[in-house]
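Would you be willing to look carefully at the protein I have copied below?

:::
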Amino acid sequence: MRYSNLFGKTLRQAPAEAETANHQLLVRSGFVDQLMSGVWSLLPLGFRVHQKIGGIIREEMEALGGQEVFLPTLQKKSQWLETGRWDEIDPPLFKFVDRHNRELALGSTHEEVITDLVRRFVHSYADLPLYLFQIQNKFRNELRSTGGLLRVREFMMKDLYSFHTDQADVAAYFEKVKSAYYRIFERCGLPVVASQASGGTIGGVSTLEFQAPSEVGEDEIVYCADCGWAVNKGVAEAAPGSSCPQCKGCSLSAAKSIEVGHIFNLGVEYSEKMGANFTDKDGKEKPIWMGCYGIGLGRVLAAIVEAHHDERGIIWPESVAPYQVHLLVVNSDDSAVRERAEEVYDQLSREKVAVLYDDREGSAGVKLADADLIGIPWRVVVSRRSLDAGGVEVKKRSESDAQVLSLEEILRLVRNTVAPPA
């Protein structure tokens, strides 16, 4: 991609109301644009990161046996009345009346829709277990949208729903999903802690939140650095400084955090209320055991920025970066420099390396500042000085030192260290 053609440009100043790093940097670097409070557009750079995160999640869900579906955003009042959540869920639903005077809601979650779907298709123990997931937009009527992409009113979420014949099977799958979530966040470059939590208006027998420690987080966890036990401070009596209830050793610490994922063992709560049953081997009708497992993609994106930035801009982990290489041409009025930059761009593109090529006219200072702000893992600069030194200048965004390499050396470096594009 040539930067001169890229939609969305960098800004020198962050919005006056932006208090968090993700809000400031994602707007300034041209990844997102705010339409209104809690409602954001993903611009091309932001959407590429979003797609990378979604690709990692999708791979892990399919490895768990998940089949992908796409469920409706418009939802029926009658299903929400079956579970008693039409007026009880928090944040409340976005509700409206259509031209036929029917009450509908924009989906904030999909337990009702998926349970109805399964009760109409699943009849026998032979149909179970079953794992269905989607990556779909959600609408939540938040009272207060804050923190850039951290708390919004419209967003994309991955929902995985699992359906089982008994309690032991859903509990075993819950542990598999827990392990998969650790892999997802590790692949995204995001350190997390799994903490005990409340099921809120989703409910469930047991739940775990995946919390990314961050000073801008709205949650606070109490955790043990030795054994990894953790709990959301809002749902349990666990004081920092007291001994760990699990290992009885290390004293507990507290940290602010961002919830980036939540998994629920739902038991039979929804299946009993909605009549989602199956016939077992003995011909007896029983309620289906369920689990649900969510990750908000936009919040993960924001949490990555909170964890990976410096005073100059974002530092994307290679697995989710919008491009692998940021190529800059300096002294672009020098025909030899320009020609060499075009050669590097063409060769990297032929090698299937995702390149953002800053081909604009402009000062070296502006281009270098924009490269740091955008945060692509590798910066390659073609200039008169680099050509005189026998190559092009290469620097990793997370490091301070640059080196001059030949094109062949760059390709070898990229092949060995840069993750392939999603």
Observations:
- The chain has a mean pLDDT of 94.
- The longest helix spans residues 167-187.
